[in-house]
Amino acid sequence: MFSKKELNVNIxxxxxxxxxxxxxxxxxxxxxxxxxxxxxxxxxxxxxxNQNISLGKIKIGRSPNHTIITKKIDNDKLLMGTSDxxxxxxxxxxxxxxxxxxxxxxxxxxxxxxxxxxxxxxxDKGFFEYDIKNGETRHLNxxxxxxxxxxxxxxxxxxxxxxxxxxxxxxxxxxxYSNYGNIIEIDLDDFKISKVINIxxxxxxxxxxxxISSLEKLGDKLFVGTNKGILQINVRTGVFGHTYGEEIFKGxxxxxxxxxTEKNIILATDYDIFSFDIETxxxxxxxxxxxxxxxxxxxxxxxxxxxxxxxxFNIGFFIIDKYGNLLKQATxxxxxxxxxxxxxxxxxxxxxxxILGFSFISxxxxxxxxxxxxxxxxxxxxxxxxxxxxITKKGYLDFRWRNFIDLWNNIDFGLYLRNSFIICxxxxxxxxxxxxxxxxxxxxxxxxxxxxxxxxxxxxxxIPGVMFLIPIHIMFTNFTRVTxxxxxxxxxxxxxxxxxxxxxxxxxxxxxxxxxxxxxLEEAATIDGCSAFQVFTKISLPLAVPGIIATGIFVFLxxxxxxMFAWILTSAETMTIPVGIRLFVGNFQNRFDxxxxxxxxxxxxxxxxFFLLQxxxxxxxxxxxVKE
Amino acid sequence: MKKKFKVIAEMKKYRIAYAFIAPxxxxxxxxxxxxxxxxxxxSFLKLNQFTLFSYLxxxxxxxxxxxxxxxxxxxxVRIGLGQAAINTFIYAILVTFGTIILGMIVAxxxxxxxxxxxxxxxxxxFPWIIPQxxxxxxxxxxxxxxxxxxxxxLYDWLKIYKFLNISSVKPFWLSGDPKTLVAIILPxxxxxxxxxxxxxxxxxxNIPRDYYEAAxxxxxxxxxxxWHITFPLLRPxxxxxxxxxxxxxxxxxxxxxxxxxxxxxxxxxxxxxxMVNIFRNAFLxxxxxxxxxxxxxxxxxxxxxxxxxxxxxxxxxxxxE
Lengths: 628, 321
Prior knowledge:
The structure holds 2 protein chains of 2 kinds.
Chain A: H1 4-46, H2 50-55, E1 67-72, E2 77-82, E3 86-91, E4 96-102, E5 109-112, E6 117-121, E7 127-131, E8 137-140, H3 144-148, E9 162-165, E10 170-173, E11 182-187, E12 192-198, E13 212-218, E14 221-226, E15 230-234, E16 240-244, E17 256-259, E18 264-268, E19 272-277, E20 282-288, E21 301-305, E22 308-312, E23 316-320, E24 326-331, E25 335-336, E26 350-351, E27 357-360, E28 365-369, E29 374-379, E30 384-390, H4 402-410, H5 413-444, H6 450-459, H7 465-483, H8 491-515, H9 519-527, H10 532-543, H11 545-560, H12 564-569, H13 577-587, H14 592-612, H15 614-627
Antiparallel strand pairs in A: 1-2, 2-3, 3-4, 5-6, 6-7, 7-8, 9-10, 10-11, 11-12, 13-14, 14-15, 15-16, 17-18, 18-19, 19-20, 21-22, 22-23, 23-24, 25-26, 27-28, 28-29, 29-30
Helix pairs in contact in A: 1-14, 4-14, 5-8, 5-11, 8-11, 9-10, 11-15, 13-14
Chain B: H1 2-13, H2 15-42, H3 64-70, H4 81-110, H5 117-129, H6 132-142, H7 149-157, H8 160-164, H9 178-205, H10 209-217, H11 222-233, H12 235-250, H13 254-259, H14 274-284, H15 288-320
């Protein structure tokens, strides 16, 4: 038997080993996490919206965007809509979010229809009607591609505008902001599009596209604010009326249109406010932000209550009457300090913030709305902030497939994918046929010159790719010039190049597989009366299949990844994925969501092949290492 | 005379072998050796967009291209070339050794018995499946200044500037200063090490366990076992990895070309590599003559490196015997 002392030593030895194993496992999993993180990050960002990526809102819990509408529904409850399409009900009394519904839309506009229902228009998902009481949602998909048979670049959507007529039960809205002069009329009863009004060509220069930036309705007349001026449309008869102010608003967007009386509309550009008499068609400036040099600020919000005009800018607001007399100016710290993710920082101190909207909850109280879901209730009599709040509930994971659709629409990704598959698969087949023959001949037949061939195959790996590229580029150009056969930018040309280019490497890998097949087998077959070619096809080839598969996949992977030759030798029709993505990266440097989506799509076929044939790849790659 | 006949007879005997290698041989002559000799000849020509159509009939300028590259500091070829050479040297060395060392560490970790080993190995191979151009885009995205995840983790979450006593301004990694070299080395190592790991692991699994048992009886510790058993027995693997790592990384192109998405693909002073430099020189400046000259010089350097490697390899073989 063991003595006690020996036993102790043994136990401690195994314990030590166990602990070391735990430590090694710990480090291994840290390393595994670090290794996989970039891949996970790529796929994760492929599903994020570019807005959130470029704002750095990359965590899973995200805050709402800026508040765009507030409405009092019960005594103490406020309904708040945000620009990313969330509808929140906020309890004033205990500063809590009672209810929340998210539509995850982009370029959202929200308007109340009546006491219960609100309408949401968006740039990407279409039009919604939401009932606050029972939570019923109706959705109308306003897909740009379906309607106008045109590709809508998502970059061009900045905001949607909307005007609601509760009596007629109709809504007029736009899908996109910047390039297209279309207004869509939606009937709320049957919840369908009843009319599409195109206003292109109605202003002086017909070839210039019009961007609609605001809408307002008085009676039957719809007033459209654009970058060219105001247009009046009779929505009942569908007759286009006059255009106004083409001289005054040349190239300035009319950002806000609000009716103040039944005859007057207040309109605002970035710095100036005008009064517009709809009977005489007279437009007169009443207020300018440039007048006082201290407040030369951009107008960020405009609203009207009781014949008074509320103008918001980045540190406060003005109240003027309808003749332009300044009634009140208030500047100062109105909002809580938050970081980009919507977390309160600095112990809740108040800071200045952009005022992006006003809402009126009683005669004396107004709600000021700002970025990151912040709002504050301002008392007009005492000029003080009564309450300041933030829609604190954390957001949602904005998981979207839309990036992939945009990818397909914005760049010709389907074509690149098809080209890449054609080129890589053809290359793989041609290379494998040639490489199998060559490798077999080099291994089995000690013919004169076999050594030279082996050395030549190895030495080709030492030549820089650029060295081939320049002569091949010129050779192709001259070949086409002399014979008239196009090779530059054709599938044939690039497949020929790739096949020859990846051949030496394939031969080098395959050699080790063929040399592993016992010679005795082949000798036996020869004695049985097989010819040399039969020995190859019936004995050696079937035995080398795993190696051939492994090498073939390797060739496919390398061809899939090849950029330099493809960059020079493919045309617009034969472009492969790396070239397409490289061009895309050059043109759309700020579209990280699409870049990551493209990367993900480019990786998926390769990953799929790897999973399918993993065993072959691993054995093929390691064969060389073991054989030495 | 007799010997010559013997060779012809041998050739006749191996007719089928010649039939087998003929297509590959023709392909290699057409697309490897012809372009190679043309490229070497081109390096003696004044070949730009004006003389491109006459191709090999372009004016012969002798060694002028080489003189421009090596001795004329005012020549436009020289812009960034020296720095690119230095970068390529540092890049190739660090990436090659980085991949081998990291691959060795993980291979040793995976060469134990534990549950789920095959799965972990599969996950470790993942980066190697990602195409290089994707690696370039992905890491370019991650290295961004304000919202790049690397800066966010280091500066916003871990707040490393507090421990390191550096400014809390997030650094811009891809601006062309020495940081850029780090920013291109790390992705390449990340993408390349699984291959080394796989090959080293296959080598490790071939080492008989008896050696280690014998060593532990003799009282060797872990490091001694590694240094005196594992390392020498894996020599065939790591020497091959060393050779091919150096060759591939000197000729590395995709990652750098994709990472800097500023149109011309110019990665700044410290992010420039030889291949990117030559490519830019030849195809954006349309100066193929000097481009070929630089390629020839690079190839000569590589041949010398490979010859040195063979010498080193032979020395190792001899020292063992």
